[in-house]
Amino acid sequence: MTAPSGGPGRRPTARSLTSLLAGRTAFRLALLGSNAVLLASWGEAGYEPYAAAMGTAQVLTTLTTLGIEKSALKLVPRARRTGPQLITVLLVSALLLAGAAVLWLGCAALFVPAGDTGMLRLLAGLYAALLGLNTVLVGLCRALDRNRADVLNFAALSLVIATGAGGAGLLGWGPTAFTGWILGGTALLNLAQLPALYRAAGRPVRRGITRPVVSTSVLMACGDIAAAGTVSLLFAILGASRHHEQTGHLYLMVLASSVLLNGFGYLMRLFQPHVSLTLRSVDAASLDRRVVRRLLPVAATGAVWTAVALWLARSAEQTGLVPPPVAVLLLYVLCVPLFFAVGSLNYLLENATSRTLRATAVSALAGLLCAVLLGLFLVPALGALGAVTALASGEVAHAVLARLLLGSSVRGTAPSADAPAAPRPPGTPSADARTAPDPPAAVTTESGAPR
Questions:
Q1: Three-state secondary structure call for residue 450
Q2: Which residues contact 434 (CB under 8 A, 6 or more apart)?
């Protein structure tokens, strides 16, 4: 099944892709450039607590999105009549999650000792939570084919970050002032997105829509939560180890890699409405042949390659060929192909059927557990290099478990609920035309998630 030629779900044009990618790239480059300015202005001693606070708070960005953006990009294009009601459910969910995060941080602040460090951690958490909300709001705009809002939002956010870096470099702003500045700018941009989304929302919401939409969002969030949670926990382990001075190295590496990895993930989300409609007509045998059977080879190759990459980076550092921060970045760059491969397969499984979505959600959480357990041993021994190695090992575990969960059940099964219908006689209306699939009263997936 192909996507409609116009509206939500259509294949992105070259012009829209260029403008959207330019906005996100500008944001990531502004983030990376500003941190270079901050490190030069504050010195390593002043930058370390900022890096630790921002790195640990990253998981809140994912928790406040909770798969809502990806769920919107998957479900809204499939909904022919209830799209506005889906927007209502997703928007309310995003606001409730952000509000819960802000409330939790406010309560936690009551028990944090007074001082710059406690205030910095609070502001970093608030910024991470509101940045997650910002991502959801512009994602909902894209699901409604309002791409201009996404471009303008991230152009403005880039300006806020660059201005804050200028304040740190020229006016002597410290970590607390800089974080408060970008927090305020993000909050204003969130408020600017709400009126248009409120007008697009449908009221009242039909009974039975909320539960499947929320369950789909939670499942689609597992991969992102596992990735962000792994990074945050590895930051915490590194900060508590004897290699705590390498926290800044790891944070700069994460920022540098985010330009590439987040750009790749964002590109996949731009195509997600079109891919969601396309995968709806793929049967189980094709999915097994094209995706599931590739998981184990990717995992085996990734495990061997990660070990070799660690040896190369460690040797380069010990022989003095590169300084420690460059060795960390080298190891991460060498592991990027593994991240891309597992991420691509996970992306296809998330957008295929409800069974593959559940399997990849469970395996992502298992990957987090594997990475953290390895990090408890590798980080004290190797520092930031051990953290990157543990991160890559979690991706390997993710692929292995997904293969185990799907390998025996995909082969030999009947076509899934998303499989195409049998050929029909000429002149007979299609199933889509007869049922006009909309969540939840029409066609649903196995878990009840609307299609």
A1: strand
A2: none
